Amino acid sequence: MKRPSAKLIALLLTTGLASGLATAARAVDAEENLPEAWFAQQGTMEKLREETGVRPPKPDQHPVAAMYNREAIIPPQCYTRTEGKHNPCYVCHQDALPGRENVMNDRDLQEAYSFSDLGQTNHWANLFRDRAQRVAGISDREILDWVDDDNYSDLQPRLQAAGFKGWIPDLENLEERADAFDEQGIARDGSGWVAFNYKPFPSTFWPTNGSTDDVMIRLPAIYREDAKGEPSRAVYQANLAILEANIKELGSITTAPLDERELGVDLNGDGALAVITEITDVSRYVGAAREQYLEPFLYPKGTEFLHTVRYLGMDDEGRIGVSRRMKEVRYMKKWQAYNKPTLARYYEEEAFEKEAGFLPGYTRLGDWGLDNGSGWSIQGFIENREGKLRVATHEENTFCMGCHSSIGSTIDKTFSFARKIDGAAGWGYINLKGMPDAPNVGEFEGEFLTYFRRAGGGDEFRSNPEVLQRFFDENGKVDADKVAGLDVYDLIVPSAVRALQLNKAYRVIVDEQSFLFGRDATWHPPMNVYDAVSNVDSPTLEETRIFDWDIRLDWQAANASGEGRSKTVIAVSQDAH
């Protein structure tokens, strides 16, 4: 295990952040008010705490029957108190836009709670627990060691030894973050994975709320080969750019320099074959994939996404970034390419089932995870008590399904690729420094500034005091002057003191193996969250507080307004936790 440098420890000490270097015992506070469900699920959590293998223990019943929360697809954020004016819901719940495959049409969920009888109870009990004492028992040195350790590289051999039949991690050195990729985002190991730089989705995936992450895409081999079936980097880059243009409905897109003579096609429409940096013909793929079906807003069959969720890493200067340790590894593959009318029927059937009172259910694909019903499988890997990655349980996988199957704002059930920096500038490992707060398509102000205003805070529960202290006045209104010109890093990355607390809070959840009660890295119960919601009586939003929104970003408008500025925030206030 790599130890934090003396320089970093000295920095933390001089800024008053270090909380001691000895590890305290992790006994649960005897005075803690544990929920009744906690005791009912002790058997499940105890089995997970005792299991050291790469597979979770099998339940005594069918996995669905063994679930604690059959409505695990409803995330904790859906239980926020809107108080009739605060709307963080708009980034998930939207009606269909022209041409989109996603016709969930759930914009009405911004203005009214609409849960099943079971879903009206907030099952995410970890939100209501005070873990401050246990967090205080973890030293700064211990948590810095923990987040800088590698728990990814041994996942592949452990899965192979266990006879795992699903996807096995095949991207070497991913624990080393940007070093695993070249300057254009292509994995150095030849695996075909490509990293891209995207704007984190508001606000669950903002570092200030608990995690960093990265996302990679891989297209099937036919999209990486030339017309003769030989591997071609140029063909792959051209096809990735063409796909991006179609996911975003762009008429043209920039690219790394490509030699059209190698591709055998005039992609910029100038009547000659030469080296180009812009593709204006995005109507078809090139190379061996030239005859493959292409439709806007749809990924081709065989597309894969790799998403790692990580702790908040910290360098020797106290700057926050992606950690080596991974909280989760998430994998998606598109096994079947349905057309838009078929997908529309899927949404219609889902609405019928909900209206009839059926609880959500997904087909188990064995080691490939769960089928979301529209062509994609999802399998996750999560930390065991020792911090080694293991296969997620059925219930832990179900947690991911709602966002990738049942909300109206996604494009082909995904988030990040549509939020990639456009074109050539967006290929490469995620880097929030210098990234402008681009507005969403159809809007004029920065997306995150807009979210602050509409949500009334820096998270769904308006419980992030550090964001409130930085960017809001004493009346709870956003101070636009404090936001103006800041880059994404400065807007959504926490101070070192908060980062340490967030890491420690999640470390407690790992030690407990209590993921079925929620994964939010909180140590005090957040404000503004219901423990139960009434579809009839809970206050809802007026029409004036309901918003249209597009997940895509207007990067041209952002660039025209100038790049953001970046600075390092070591501490804001000892109370801003």
Automatic annotation (TrEMBL):
Top-level division of the source organism's lineage: Bacteria
UniProtKB keywords: Signal
Residues spanning the signal sequence: 1-24
Name of the featured protein: Lipoprotein
